[in-house]
Amino acid sequence: MKEEGKNSNAQVHNIRAAKSIVDTVKSTLGPMGMDKMMVDGGGNVIVTNDGATILRELDIAHPGGKMMVEVAKTQESLCYDGTTSTVVLAGQLLANSEALFEKGLHPNVICRGYHEAAQMAVKHLDKISHTAKKSNLGNILANVAKTAITGKTLENALENVSALCVDAVQRAGDVDKVRVVSFPGGSLEDSYLFTGAIVNKDFVLEHDLQSTEEVLLINTGLEPEKIEENLQLQINSVESMQTYKMSGKNALIKSANKIIKALPDGGIVFVRDSVHDTVCAQLKKHRIGVIRRLPPSTMRTLSKIANTDILQTPDDVVYEGMPLKIERKKYNDVSYLFVTSHKHEHDEGTLVLRGATSHTLEEVERGFDDALGVVSLVVNDESYVYGGGVPYVAMSAYLRQHAAAIGGRAQMAIEAFADALEVIPATIAENAGHDPLDTVLAMRHELLQGNDSMGPDVTNGGVTDMKKAGVFEPTTLVRQAVLSASEVTTALLRIDDIIGRRPVE
Predict the structure, then answer these.
(1) At the topology level of CATH, where does 2-131+385-493 sit?
(2) Residues designated as active site
């Protein structure tokens, strides 16, 4: 009996810690979710309703709470969104497990039942999902983006933002290729997709830019050779010292002359590392600007835009690219170069976000990241479901229908899993100020009548048609949320003791 009490205490502590995490983010779920103001010791403020951001900024000591945060991170890394849903579902699964404990179910029995329920649920999810047809793909993607950003700062420019997200992902083909930059000032409606690269690194650019500029990309620096450590030089005279210094300078001038020969009419050199002032001065005489200290990702982007290779050393200098359109713009006293091609088709794009303040822009960027991510999921998977918690109620009904066939005590765990799934639409309704139980019961009723797209009406209460409202979510997001919530729940339930470990030496 003592051992059972110890196990129970460990599980109780884990469940309490997990519930505290859930209570923190639960009120942010859905289009009517509330915001959180997060303040650090230095007085820095973040205002957001993004679950991933909130969880990332929390100071959590309990290992059970940390596991909840980790599963949220996994959800974000795989699906870009759905972190709050995952945590809320996991919290409800843990809460339901407490009732099962009281009925005498062993943690392993609950874990097996939850695992089986999760597998059954996602199989049914695949059956009720919809394929995004090419003829209507643009509209579906736009609705997916709108669903992701509804309730966030971006909502005031819903149509513009969703169109930008769809355009960016379809152009790039991969969300990781889409870069996002933000400039304070203006309004969200001023945001746009720039089909090129934006550079704000170290400029040595004093000539007036022409309509097109020839460019070179060099994947190194233009500096004197570094002397190896412990290398000894014996210099016996002033003349030897001067000769040594001039050799380094001559090498730099030689490199500069090669660039001048490659760009006789002037242009711009993009360089990955540092460039010596001697080289800059020499190039300046021939109307050649220098942009230095560029990251490899920017160099690769410029290579695609210019349709040219990145030169590995100054000795390789030869111009084989295409002239680029380069425009200089200034935001908040910082100069930027907007680089794009006149002729060459490329898939590189940069989302330029505008907003009144830096705080606003931070939340705007988070919203854009979510929207870009979910759009890319549908592009890759070509599968979506209705939002508003609709698939969760459908999975719940399916589990209840088939739980009896399982039999035994595992049936009770599967039924508890089914009950937990309905926490998503219930929370959405509750956060909108409506009765969660009435909403779930209405959704169940509509589902039995064959209306499989009815979800919470956050404006008027009751239920409404998610299909007609254009509330869509990626199937991948919902599937991963169910699997992640089940996984972290079973992991926590299997812990029967929390033991201190010795420090790692």
Answers:
(1) GROEL; domain 1 (1.10.560)
(2) 50, 83-84, 370
